[in-house]
Amino acid sequence: MAFGFPAQEVRYLPQSEGSNTLNRYLAFRVCRELRWPLVAITETTVTATTLNYAGSWNETFTLECLDGEIALRSVSNGNQLYDGGRNGKNIDLFINAFNSLKKKSAEIPLEDAYLEASLQEQAVLISQRLQPTPVIKQFYTPLSVLIPAPGYTLTPALIGINVLLWIIMVANGVSPWNANPEQLVQWGANFTLHTLDGEWWRLGTALFLHANLFHLLSNAIGMALVGLSLEPFLGKKGLAALYLSTGLVASTCSLFWNENIVCIGASGAVFGLFGFLCTALVFRSITHRMNASAWIAITIFVGLNLIGSFEEGIDAAAHLGGFGAGILWALGYHAFRTQSLWRHSVLALGFTLIIIGGNAYTYTSLQPRMQLFHYWTAMEEFAQNESIAIDSYQYNGDSTDEYREQLEETGLVYWRKNKTLLNRLNDPTLPKKVRALTKNCITYCTLHEKFIRYKLDLIQEKTSDEMPLETMELQIESIGERIRQQIQEVAREYKLPMRN
């Protein structure tokens, strides 16, 4: 059993008999017998990958001819820290087959020139058969996930951006342990009321915000695991497109299902990457020898996060939406790699239908919500105008002329503004309860206008009867209470933020 970053085992055999060429040729034949896919044949080495089953997880096996000895090395793929004895079993299996074949070769000796020609021919065939295999970054220390390497630059950059932004937020007063939702909205969180009011950029900015240190670390670990596996194959541009597109889908799903909840975090995009990786492995769209470490990463991260997605405060809609988007991406990636015309046609038709259906669903589902949110936002202006108009009722002991001017130029003006606003909002397509609220608000404004006019008549001594004024005050109080009840009912039924 071996431990390491990654786990590996090395053994040395004496090169007592046979030349360098013979030993490499025998290694080539052994790999063929064991059905280990050959990766490379050079002047001193033969490299292959083991099979993928319970006792072997696509380890990289290399025979290297040194001066006077042969080095046999079996290396776990990806970032496996413990090999469960698999590397040792691979070497034992190879040695048994190698010694058996060596005895047979002694009975029928072959010239080195012939063997070398055969090896060179096989090396050419291997290079033609294998596409250039991306170099997968190895984890030699836990912090190496943050260090760029050939074929691994965008992932540490994305992690760095998320960490840097979190540090900036904390430096500006955001709590590192439990960020205030209002502060997160100010920094660009995805919040229905603001996003549907034209601030669509929040769908993207929310992907880089985190509520606390644990939230940041969990997403960074997931991003490192999946980025390590995908970036060498998709490249920087492909991974960036996948990350952003699945993240935007996740944010949109969150917008539909989590009304008036502040939604942030990279987990939707990370789930999109894992959805892609999972599907690509099933269809073998990426290198087969990645399967072991990739499946372990998927099982641990996706399993735990999906279980936790249904706890309170976790954005399950973003997780599932991102994962589904990643699956669609992977199906498209696989179809184009197969070079099949009918697959391309089906894919193009499928994506066209998805886009058309998605747009139709978005339009039909968002329009009523957007209309309702515009109404609710406009009611903030109503509340502000109401407060200014009611303040004009206060008599500060100034002259009656100044008080009359205050009522006319402030009170009446702002109640008229509110009536104009309400008439504009009185759309017959709004829900019945909302239209009833609008109607009562218009009546409320009309009563206030009558109240001010009668008060002006009293000031100008056109009348001395104050009884109608008291009656109107009771009517205003009654309908005001009814409006407050309606606001609570509408907010509760349509999941809108409460207004005073």
From TrEMBL:
Record field: transmembrane: 145-168, 207-228, 240-258, 264-283, 292-310, 316-334, 346-364
Gene Ontology molecular function: any one: serine-type endopeptidase activity
Membrane topology label: Multi-pass membrane protein
GO biological process, one term: proteolysis
Domain annotation Peptidase S54 rhomboid: ranges: 198-333
Pfam assignment, any one: Rhomboid
Protein name: Rhomboid protease GluP
InterPro entries per the UniProt record, alphabetical: Peptidase_S54_rhomboid_dom, Rhomboid-like_sf, Rhomboid_protease_S54
The species this protein was found in: Flavobacterium fontis
Keyword Secreted: no
Keywords assigned: Hydrolase, Membrane, Protease, Transmembrane, Transmembrane helix
Family note: Belongs to the peptidase S54 family.
Cellular component, GO annotation: membrane
Compartment(s) of residence: Membrane
